[in-house]
Amino acid sequence: MADYVGALDLGTTGVRCVVYDRGLRPVAAAYRELPLHYPRPGWVEQDPALLVAAAQDVSSRALAQARLSPADLVALGITNQRETVVAWDRTGRPLGPAIVWQDRRTAPLCERLREEGHEAWVRKKTGLPLDPYFSATKIAWLLDHVPGLRERAARGEALVGTVDAWLLWNLAGIHATDPTNASRTLLYDLRAGSWDPGLRDLFGVPEACLPEIRPSVSVFGRTRPDFLGAPVPVGGVLGDQQAALFGHAAVEAGEAKVTWGTGAFLLMNVGGEPVVSRHGLLTTVAYAMAGEVRYALEGAVFVAGAALQWLRDGLGIIGDVAQSEALAQTIPSTDGVYFVPALTGLGAPYWDPHARGTIVGLTRGTVRAHLVRAALEAIAYQTYDVVRAMEADAGVTLAELRVDGGAARNAFLCQFQADLLGIPVVRPAEGEMTARGAALAAGLSAGWWPEPAAVRALPTALSRFSPRSHVPERGSWLTGWRRAVDRARHWAPDA
Predict the structure, then answer these.
(1) Which of 20, 80, 243, 308 could be joined to 164 by an S-S link, Cβ 3.0–4.6 Å?
(2) Is residue 137 part of a domain?
(3) Around Cβ 482, how many Cβ atoms within 10 Å?
(4) Any binding-site annotation on 12?
(5) Does the structure show a pLDDT above 80 at 45?
């Protein structure tokens, strides 16, 4: 009897496969790092073929580690970096690089569309602003710059999609996606639950090249025998941030989480009706299953953990990101140093593609510990900005903030975030909530549980960071942060 599910997590910097038992306990995991390429300032690309090769590699290694065969898996769930775009032909050959969600090359197109007066209509349809972050302008760029692609796409000979669609094509020969990924493209009508003809026309994307949209929790098909050695049902697809929300079992309106990974992404479940943001947030699909759709508000921060990676790889001032916690605690404060990590522009709630990274408050006494602590505090400040905007939009005050992602292992960051927000920060012992969400979707599709909330009964170890009762510095901290952000904004108006 198949008593396990697999979760494939295709992230920005790596691909992971985790095998879970019926208690949603991880029994094996494998990981492979992915390179990113930066051919020009503001451009971020990946090799699509490496995404598939890495997915096959980690899936095989995770099964081997658990001493399981494909027949032991009742289903496989997929979660993925979202707005990243791939184009390919029907043989599975990539037609150009994968344009990564961080890529800003389409900022001029977004500005032109805003100047033409399209943004209000686009936001009403999609819940999203006109920003290079989202997929439609990336698709348009590929259609315009890969020779012959537009004509082939119109005939259905070439296909486009987000990473989930690219993986499904290679795993199972299916050209499909789910509403959580579709709702990140600027081509999806939130209320109709389908690709919108007017949006397709605006961005010049032919219908024939787009994937079919299926519920997040459903059986998409079965993997090809050569992928794992035997067919396995694909029982769920979720964009990575929605998967993390799902993994936290945050299925009630008003529950929220932040994932601190390469970027920082905060989602709040708002229930069965979309909430239109008035404070620079996104409205998106949280998940869809059995005719039921749940929506979320989202604030996306482009650079979070990536700021620490930059300190390591770009400046060489730390040898390992894990050092950051101990270094930050060697000093009582940043001594007025602020780091605004707008290395690829600013996301929510500012949406400024021309902002640039800024470090202010340096003195002769500044040492590397100040920079490292400022980078960690910047993650918390950016999260604070999004939380306050989200509370204003939803008309609720968060009772707690659930955290996950690589940076959530940093206890200094968790405690600073609790102090800054004045509410508890709750961290599950299992850090891979994105993979857990994909596994939950796979288990639901296989009939393991009647509804997502049923997993709340499963035992889960939690760490709780309570805010200090009195933090007199909070006001001055935030004043300094806002001044620093003001200096980072609109730095490259002609970019």
Answers:
(1) 80
(2) yes
(3) 12
(4) yes
(5) yes
